């Protein structure tokens, strides 16, 4: 009996452990699902059902369908007409694998997600190029000819622009003729079809979401090129200063001028001033697909002239600062001597570097979740439209409003505070680094050989202790003041741009003078505060 009790107890423990592991697996899967939805919500758009294109958790499963396509061209046109109640966000859109194109010798259709009486799987629907017009009942066909679905004609070609099908306002004559012969209603042919989608794709909120999504996708490149490589090069630079201090100023000047000259020559090649025509030297004369417009050539010429001026200024400046370089060389020798004696100064910058790296990783993760934390809600619209509902089996005029991601004011305030906190934390870590380095150099300078055996590492550790015990509050308030001034400058610049966009008339001279003077004054205050803070830390 005791054995049976023990076996029962062990079995209960095993079941409990398995249950806990199952819960842990479910929680981790939910976390991955949340992160996936966050990134998808920033990258892809919504269909007329409120599903995120490319999501596995939609109805239906859209994990292969990541391109948004507007089915009714007349709704797209009407949403671009002034004083019209229809918005593009309320136009019927579905998710496809790629943007459809008109047939060369007939008429293609793009039909709604198969459901109800249309007994096709999503895979079969995709394999049929989203066209099941031949399976429609007479009522469904009549509804489709009235542009009420479930199938809509492909009249305009479209291309994938940032995961949305951008219509090209050039209707296919063959497809349009077949549509008219079938008895379809009139389809508006106007450049507004192109401009309306273009305006929505390039709105400020869409561009900002794409930037944040690109950061989330390109984090390996950012870590390598923006993190590890600069760290490696900075350590190499410190070692070169340590052992080649007299030659380093001259090497720096020569490398800088060589870089400017190389970039200028590259622009000369791109502009066609070093070669037969633009891009010939880069691509080759036999490439038949190279077509450079006059505007692009003029832009390249202007950029080449600007780089020529920069090259001349850089070369003349290098000649003018030769005497200053000669004066600065002894100072650099003293700095190299300090680095040689206080060897921990070479290793110490790695500490704030990794602190900022860890902070930025958490900050970017929080940024992704903040920008994708809006709720998918149905729009409040007064649109009069009807579309065929496959589930109901009839034309429905009640669900005309589309879906959008709505953000509460609290999320906007959280995003602003999040951006401000990032700049403040960055300034705080930089200020702490400056204080520790200044304290280490001061300890070395005043030691005068008395505790030379403790100098290499103890001075840096002692300086860090003094920072944590005595100076942390001063560093925090100094970085906060600098961050506040920078934030005021940022807000004023945003207000200036918004007022410039609102005011359709030409900006007055007084407005320009006021904006420029305020920016100049705040820039001077910011520079003064940074200088005072740096000297105060030292």
Question: How would you concisely characterize the structure shown here?
Answer:
Choline transporter. The protein has helices spanning 2-43, 73-80, 122-127, 138-145, 173-181, 192-201, 204-217, 219-243, 248-271, 280-283, 294-320, 322-341, 344-347, 350-371, 409-447, 455-502, 509-537; strands spanning 67-70, 93-96, 109-111, 151-153, 158-161, 164-167, 375-378, 387-389, 394-396, 403-406.
What does this structure look like?
Belongs to the CTL (choline transporter-like) family. This is Choline transporter-like protein. Keywords: Glycoprotein, Membrane, Transmembrane, Transmembrane helix. The chain crosses the membrane at residues 219-240, 247-269, 300-322, 342-363, 428-447, 467-492. It is found in: Cell membrane; Membrane. With 538 residues, the chain is mainly α. Among the domains are: 34-202, no CATH class; 355-373 and 408-537, no CATH class. Helix content is 63%, strand content 7%. It has 17 helices and ten strands. The chain has helices spanning 2-43, 73-80, 122-127, 138-145, 173-181, 192-201, 204-217, 219-243, 248-271, 280-283, 294-320, 322-341, 344-347, 350-371, 409-447, 455-502, 509-537; strands at 67-70, 93-96, 109-111, 151-153, 158-161, 164-167, 375-378, 387-389, 394-396, 403-406. The strands form five sheets. It has a two-stranded antiparallel sheet with strand order 1-2. Strands 3-4 form a two-stranded antiparallel ribbon. Helix 14 (350-371) runs antiparallel to helix 15, helix 15 packs antiparallel against helix 16 and helix 16 (455-502) runs antiparallel to helix 17. The longest helix has 48 residues, at 455-502. The radius of gyration is 32 Å and the shape is elongated. Residues 1-35 and 278-291 have low confidence and may be disordered.
């Amino acid at each position: 009996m005791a054995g049976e009790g023990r076996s029962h107890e062990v079995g209960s423990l095993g079941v409990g452990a398995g249950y806990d592991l199952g819960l842990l697996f479910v929680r981790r899967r939910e976390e991955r699902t949340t992160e996936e939805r966050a990134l998808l919500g920033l990258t892809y758009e919504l269909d007329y059902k409120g599903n995120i294109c490319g999501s596995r958790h939609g109805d239906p499963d859209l994990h292969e369908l990541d391109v948004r396509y507007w089915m009714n061209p007349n709704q797209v046109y009407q949403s671009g007409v002034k004083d019209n109640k229809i918005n593009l966000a309320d136009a019927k859109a579905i998710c496809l694998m790629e943007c459809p194109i008109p047939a060369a010798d007939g008429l293609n259709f793009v039909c709604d997600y198969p459901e109800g009486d249309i007994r096709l799987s999503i895979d079969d629907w995709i394999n049929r190029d989203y066209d099941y017009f031949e399976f429609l009942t007479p009522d469904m066909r009549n509804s489709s000819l009235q542009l009420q679905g479930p199938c809509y004609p492909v009249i305009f070609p479209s291309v994938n622009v940032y995961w949305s099908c951008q219509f090209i306002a050039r209707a296919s004559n063959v497809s349009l003729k077949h549509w008219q012969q079938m008895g379809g209603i009139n389809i508006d042919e106007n450049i507004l079809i192109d401009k309306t989608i273009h305006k929505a794709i390039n709105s400020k909120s869409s561009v900002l979401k794409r930037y944040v999504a690109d950061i989330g996708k390109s984090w390996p490149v950012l870590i390598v090129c923006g993190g590890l490589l600069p760290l490696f090069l900075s350590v190499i630079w410190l070692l070169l200063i340590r052992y080649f201090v007299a030659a380093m100023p001259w090497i720096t000047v020569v490398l800088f001028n060589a870089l400017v000259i190389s970039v200028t020559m590259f622009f000369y090649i791109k502009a066609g001033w070093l070669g037969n025509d633009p891009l010939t030297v880069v691509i080759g004369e036999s490439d038949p697909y190279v077509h450079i417009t006059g505007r692009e050539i003029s832009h390249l010429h202007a950029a080449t002239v600007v780089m020529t001026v920069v090259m001349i200024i850089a070369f003349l400046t290098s000649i003018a600062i030769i005497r200053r370089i000669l004066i600065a060389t002894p100072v650099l020798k003293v700095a190299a001597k300090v680095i040689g004696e206080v060897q921990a100064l070479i290793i110490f910058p790695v500490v704030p570097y990794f602190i900022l790296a860890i902070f930025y990783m958490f900050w970017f993760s929080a940024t992704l979740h903040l920008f994708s934390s809006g709720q998918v809600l149905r729009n409040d619209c007064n649109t009069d439209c009807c579309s065929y509902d496959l589930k109901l089996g009839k034309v429905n005029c009640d669900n005309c409003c589309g879906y959008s991601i709505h953000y509460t004011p609290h999320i906007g305030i959280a995003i602003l505070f999040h951006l401000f906190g990032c700049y403040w934390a960055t300034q705080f870590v930089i200020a702490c680094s400056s204080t520790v380095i200044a304290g280490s150099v001061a300890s070395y300078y005043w030691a005068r050989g008395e505790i030379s055996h403790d100098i290499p590492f103890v001075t840096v550790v002692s300086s860090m202790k003094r920072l944590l015990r005595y100076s942390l509050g001063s560093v925090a308030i100094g970085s906060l003041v600098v961050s506040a001034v920078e934030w005021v400058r940022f807000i004023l610049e945003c207000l200036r741009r918004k007022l410039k966009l609102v005011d359709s008339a030409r900006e007055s001279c007084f407005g320009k003078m006021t904006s420029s003077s305020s920016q100049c004054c705040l820039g001077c205050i910011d520079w003064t505060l940074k200088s005072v803070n740096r000297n105060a830390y030292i």
